[in-house]
């Protein structure tokens, strides 16, 4: 039988963490581009496969945010198979949060907040070929605290095909109450959460601003403010754009979990044509502190009120804040050659 022609240069297997934002942004969509741009065959699996030929013929097997004992055993078993058959398969571990530093009050903390799961994650990191992090803080953190040396930073990028046709605004509305948007999941609310310090300001200004909560609303505010239910990943940009907000907010609490956060929310808001107000936390260690031109304020309600008020009453400030975000976004479209090639380089 004649050997088939045009065999793929590389066969890559991904195990995405989920089919939500993290899975799509950092695995599913980037690797769809790689499979189109290069001669790759990419397979995304939600369940582990234990077939020797499948494992051995893979150029790369990439695990995203696995932390359980069972998941650790799978990674180690894959490594045993690769070593036993002498395959050149490369193992990559991908993570975009300090998941074991998540606040105990966080609704998803139970999934990660144990010493066993932290230990599992560190053992995986030390036994793969490469670890990919979303921020420099994460890379430095795991190197300094746990000796993880074999790592690279792969920033979060925004896919232009989803976000590039949004953001047609060129001014804030006049003659009505400004619409102030907060978007996020249930992991941001609760005691010690990112929104907690803003609750008094939200209540105090309900006659001055139209507050809109997208995705989740703090239970204590339910029924008092506009709420828009969460949308699936591919509907999310259009649903968020349809809120027709004037200013968007991204408060984050001052804790080590948030130090590792990326500026993804800034990219999303900016793509919608929305200037935002962002938290300045941890002496320059937060996700927004080092971005020029973006309103970044400390977590007290007076500073936040002044920042919001400034944006909705002064067109010059509104324009400048949006321009600060656009300067950053212009470098962060996934489809840009330099950005998609960061993923490509992982497999060379």
Topology summary:
Elements: E1 10-15, H1 21-37, E2 40-44, H2 52-56, E3 60-64, H3 69-85, E4 90-95, H4 115-127, E5 130-133, H5 136-146, E6 151-153, H6 160-163, E7 179-183, H7 199-204, E8 210-215, E9 226-229, H8 236-241, E10 247-250, H9 256-259, H10 264-271, E11 276-279, E12 296-297, H11 301-313, H12 315-329, H13 337-345
Parallel strand pairs: 1-2, 1-3, 3-4, 4-5, 5-6, 7-8, 7-10, 8-9, 10-11, 11-12
Helix pairs in contact: 3-4, 10-12, 11-12
Structural description of this entry:
This protein has 348 residues and is α/β, with parallel strands linked by helices. The protein folds into two domains: 10-157 and 333-345, Rossmann fold, CATH 3.40.50.2000; 160-329, Rossmann fold (3-Layer(aba) Sandwich), CATH 3.40.50. Helix content is 37%, strand content 16%. The chain has 13 helices and twelve strands. It has helices spanning 21-37, 52-56, 69-85, 115-127, 136-146, 160-163, 199-204, 236-241, 256-259, 264-271, 301-313, 315-329, 337-345; strands at 10-15, 40-44, 60-64, 90-95, 130-133, 151-153, 179-183, 210-215, 226-229, 247-250, 276-279, 296-297. It has a six-stranded parallel β-sheet. It has a six-stranded parallel β-sheet with strand order 9-8-7-10-11-12, with helices on both faces. α3 (69-85) runs parallel beside α4, α10 (264-271) crosses α12 and α11 packs across α12. The longest helix has 17 residues, at 21-37. It is globular, with a radius of gyration of 22 Å. The chain starts with 9 loop residues before the first strand and ends with a helix. Residues 1-5 have low confidence and may be disordered.
